[in-house]
Amino acid sequence: MDTIVRFFQEGGSFMFPISIVLAIGLAIALERYWFLGAAKRTNKKAFREIEPLLASSNFDRIIQVTQNSTAPIARVIGAGITRLGVSPRREDIEYAMEEGLMETIPRLEKRTQYLGMLANISTLLGLLGTIIGLIAAFSAVANADPSEKASLLSQSISVAMNTTAFGLIAAIPLLLLHSLLNTKTAEIVDSMEMAGVKCLNTLIAKENLGPKTRHSDE
Fold this sequence. Notes:
Blueprint: H1 2-10, H2 15-55, H3 59-68, H4 72-84, H5 90-109, H6 113-142, H7 149-207, H8 214-217
Helix pairs in contact: 2-3, 2-6, 2-7, 3-4, 4-5, 4-7, 5-7, 6-7
């Protein structure tokens, strides 16, 4: 603990903004991880409830379930079932599901991109702190006794490098969390697309959906 406190104190004033950037990034990462985990659990629960209703063609009940559910997959399937009541064309139902998916994805990706930006900011703050520290060090050494210049310069450079080190210490976990959350988001989106395809295939098998041609209309 003493080593950490000394390292922080020797880094200078730039250690504080880097700490703030790291704290903001960790807060965003924790909130997104909790949100994505909840979305994954609610998706599984909602689809387990909707799947038997699809098999029995209980569309009214499906609409009720999707309207009362907070699961992202409910918006996708609900959009398709609602469109089924207006148009039985497969393309129309598929487009409605894609629209529901496009409305849901931004909520899953929200704020995740900030982690990459915060990682870059922490790195740049560390470099800026080092440069300013070196400028101050050389200015101080210029007026120092010649016999002490080498010792003072080495000590000043060591202190200035602390901000670069701390900037990298903050940036690396933020980049790892950014990659982790992007992977988790992609898995949820892929599962929603697969659930939408299963839903559409079930509707095709149960309702014999397909494009209405002019010949069939006649």
